[in-house]
Amino acid sequence: MSYGPPTPPTDIPTDLVNTLNESTSERLRHIARYAEELAEYKERETRLEEESDEDEIRERPDDLPDDVPSKATITIKEINDNRYYYWQWREGDQIKSKYKGPVNSNE
């Protein structure tokens, strides 16, 4: 272990290096924990986006509208004692739906 200060990576902005150099050891430990958690979060988000892109590549059902992703599933909603099919999928924290048609009473 060296007794001199570490050399910062060349791709870190100078103002960030200066801020870190002016920080206490305790604050630097908090920053290090935060940076590690943030890196893990961003890696997870990137991985989920890549998986989502792969899901989009899957073969689409014949009756799936162009504006509905292939990961959508069919759900049945009851409205005023009538039953209807809807395509349903998740976009981030939201659940999206698109009308498909009435449920046939013979099914």
Layout of strands and helices, then pairs:
Blueprint: H1 14-22, H2 25-57, E1 73-79, E2 82-91, E3 94-102
Antiparallel strand pairs: 1-2, 2-3
Structure description:
The protein is α+β, with helices and mostly antiparallel strands. The chain folds into 2 domains: 11-57; 61-107, no CATH class. 39% of the residues lie in helices and 24% in strands. It has helices at 14-22, 25-57, and strands at residues 73-79, 82-91, 94-102. It has a 3-stranded antiparallel beta sheet with strand order 1-2-3, with no helix packed on it. Strand 1 (73-79) and strand 2 form a beta hairpin. 2% of the residues are buried. This is DUF6788 domain-containing protein. Keywords: Plasmid.
Task: Write out key terms for the chains shown.
24% strand; 2 helices; three-stranded antiparallel β-sheet; 107 residues
